[in-house]
What we know:
By secondary structure, this protein is an alpha/beta fold. The chain has helices spanning 77-86, 106-116, 138-144, 166-179, 190-195, 216-222, 225-242, 257-265, 276-280, 302-314, 352-362, 367-381; strands at 6-14, 19-27, 30-35, 45-48, 54-57, 59-64, 89-94, 123-126, 128-129, 149-152, 182-186, 245-248, 270-274, 319-320, 399-409, 428-438, 441-445, 448-449. It has a six-stranded parallel sheet with strand order 9-10-11-12-13-14. The chain starts with 5 loop residues before the first strand and ends in an 11-residue tail after the last strand.
Amino acid sequence: MPIPQLIIRGHRVVLADSIAGASIHIHNGRITKITSYDDVTSNCEIVESGDASIVMPGLVDTHVHINEPGRTDWEGFATATRAAAAGGITTLVDMPLNSIPPTTTVEGLKAKVEAARGQCYVDVGFWGGIVPGNTPELAALLQAGVVGFKCFLIHSGVDEFPNVTEEDLRSAMPELARLGAALIVHAEVPGPINRAAVPACHLEAASEDENCSSAYKTFLESRPRAAENEAVGLMIKLAREFGGRIHIVHHSSADALPMVREARSTGVSITAETCPHYLTFAAEEISDGATEFKCCPPIRERENREQLWQALANGTIDMVVSDHSPCPPDMKLQESGDFLKAWGGISSLQLRLPATWTEAQQRGHSIEDLARWLCGAPAALVGLAGRKGALGVGGDADIVIWNPEQEFLVEPDVLHHRHKLTPYAGRTLAGVVEKTFLRGEKIYDAGKFTTEPRGLLLQV
Length: 460
């Protein structure tokens, strides 16, 4: 057994089956053994977490839009990964859009990798994309290192990443099943949205000075639950027909959850995620014109939010990821407050841990639940279980130390995203990240970054 180069120990360490006092022994970036709190050696550095803090696996966020190259003014690898490190995230996986070119070809992936090289403060993996006609590219993309593939069933918001139809999926899914690759799906279909295209307030006797498009109700009615429900039903049908692994991203409609449970019970390989904004906010509380809350699918009603929490509790929803989808503030059209024209996306990467924990503890959920939703399940989705997402011998020494009792006010100067506009601004959250370690090296400490970018570009 090699002599440890570093020991991180604490009285509240999140282990596989408990939270207990423990010492984590680290050599060459890996965990070599986990022993009792008092079992340490004197000839290496020892980091003490203190009595109040939690020692937990570094978070894994499998749904992040970094947007570089092509739209680096929206975000970028340097700023996104600094925000990740400050939020206790040690691994993230970048979405195949909104970069230019998108990650739908090997050449697109190469452009993404070159843009990321030398900029990343945490480890970064890449999703590939499925668009009409690119089925012949999928095997080569997987061989080149993407963790799986994403598609949209409705316009993605950017023209260079067109959505697929059922016919396109019938071409792609046999190839995905052959490759054993996961398909993650933006599950909204156009039909119900097209049918809801005329805002309800235009059909009523609205006053002349009323700006219908600034009403949150208008936007919510324009993206009805039926769009998600029908999309989930379609993916279950195709999964039964072709097999393979299906994952529903940023799920918001509670109405579709019984379908997911029933499909699993009959052997369909389907998982689902939701996001902190669906678990925190409620449609009834969003002011008209507050376009920083716009995302697709939308934040729905309070009763829907509570059903999402219940689905996390019973395992129907597997994980909580950020869906960090930033843009320059002027694209949010705050002056006009036009929900129908503003860019849809929530900026929240750094806040995923405290936002989820703040709401989770109010509903009686545990730190172990949090670690499963934010660390273990996302790592498993992208084939990193055993290496990331848990504190185990042989795994990467990716570790976050955080205080679950300490609160902070979300203000722009605490955020490291390129742009600071977020619906969490002014909100008090519980859970302060104190230190983040990437493969045993401290990368973040009490508000400061302690190294140059050391993140790896992952190929799994």
